[in-house]
Specification:
Blueprint: H1 4-20, H2 26-33, H3 39-51, E1 55-56, E2 65-66, H4 68-76, H5 85-97, H6 102-117, E3 120-124, E4 133-142, E5 145-152, E6 156-163, H7 170-184, H8 189-193, H9 201-218, E7 225-228, H10 230-234, H11 243-253, H12 257-261, E8 271-275, E9 287-296, E10 300-309, H13 314-348
Antiparallel strand pairs: 1-2, 3-7, 3-10, 4-5, 5-6, 8-9, 9-10
Helix pairs in contact: 1-3, 2-3, 6-13
């Protein structure tokens, strides 16, 4: 741990550099924070911070800028990340003004996140961590043609037409669907594949079709995410040379941005900060990421994230991401609660 004075000096350097984007000299640290020590003492402390890797001097005679290590220490010692009440009230009010549809919530969330953080904002659709069987319906279209309507956890609906070798009516198809729903409800791909349930040849064919759809969903490379705020990033001094942003924009165009910025060891709950070279992918090592999961664990989870320069307002941005995670989680929980209640009432009737 750094001493209280070294912490204060590092905090001053981080916050001044975040605000002004120019190296911070020792006399500015003394002036800004009114430290009861001389410039010479501050220079000695800054020399220590530089030696330990918390700050960097771009040139011998220049002031100092925080390193990734310095930003990390700053983030780990933040102690007040609560959003102002007025901003929380505004966000709550705006969400209650939009229609109760997931797409509307996510569109509003990504706009608010980009505007409030002045960085690139990303909000993904809620999705089950691995596809799980929820419900299947079989619809007779013609004597030998059947429509499979397959519902997965996470509000995913898949449809496929299949032909059958024997003529089959709707009553028989409904009986098969009911049997499969009873056997496989809530199971994932692996458990359905290994199930020893006794099935007819037609039921096995339908099960195999469902497994193919589940496998395709599990292997899907699509990135269903809302993105906003590129213009904010391009206006940052660090990225005046747009070539530094091209790699990030190419990831977004190839729909790989979310998978690239998502840390491998991402907690199910809470918000994670990844700074500069802590990022695993080379393409995003000029950036810091603040990212968190929202939703209903075990049912449907999505991602909320901010991508910006390492020189970002960590405390403010953390508070915004945290609050939007809590708002979206509550909305998704309410939505799924209503869906389950409606389904239970239907079955009871």
């Amino acid at each position: 741990m750094l001493s209280a004075r070294k912490q204060a000096i590092l905090k001053s350097i981080v916050e001044q550099y975040v605000t002004h984007a120019i190296p911070v000299p020792s006399q500015q640290v003394v002036k800004e924070y009114e430290l009861a020590v001389s410039s010479a003492t501050v220079r000695n402390e800054m020399a220590y911070l530089e030696h330990e890797g918390y700050i960097i001097r771009p040139h011998t005679s220049a002031g100092s800028v925080p390193s990734d290590k310095g930003y990390r220490y700053y983030v780990e010692t933040l102690d007040d990340m609560a959003m102002p009440t007025s901003e929380r009230v505004l966000i709550d009010h705006l969400f209650h003004q939009v229609e109760e549809e997931v797409e509307n919530w996510l569109g509003l969330a990504v706009t608010l996140l980009a505007q409030m953080t002045q960085n690139v904002a990303l909000v993904s659709m809620p999705k089950a961590s691995g596809s799980r069987f929820k419900h299947v319906e079989l619809v007779s279209l013609q004597d030998y043609l059947v429509l499979i309507v397959f519902v997965l956890y996470g509000a995913k609906v898949k449809q496929q037409l299949i032909t059958v070798e024997e003529r089959i009516d709707q009553t028989q198809l409904s009986a098969i669907a009911n049997k499969l729903n009873e056997i496989y409800f809530g199971l994932n791909y692996e458990r359905i594949s290994s199930s020893k349930a006794e099935l007819t040849q037609l039921e096995k064919s339908i099960r195999d079709c469902l497994l193919r759809m589940m496998h395709m969903e599990n292997q899907s490379n699509s990135e269903e995410a809302y993105l906003e705020g590129w213009h904010f990033l391009l206006h940052q001094p660090e990225f005046e040379q747009t070539s530094r942003v091209l790699a990030l924009m190419e990831l977004a165009e190839r729909r790989n941005l979310l998978r690239t910025i998502l840390p491998q060891k991402m907690p199910t709950c809470g918000v994670k900060v990844v700074i500069g070279r802590e990022n695993e992918a080379e393409a995003i090592r000029d950036y810091s990421i603040i990212i968190g999961h929202y939703g209903l664990p075990g049912e449907a989870m999505g991602t909320v994230g901010v991508v910006g320069p390492t020189r970002m307002e960590y405390g403010k941005n953390l508070s915004i991401v945290n609050y939007l995670v809590s708002v979206l989680s509550e909305l998704i929980s309410e939505l799924y609660g209503r869906k389950l209640t409606q389904r239970d009432n239907t079955e009871a009737g």
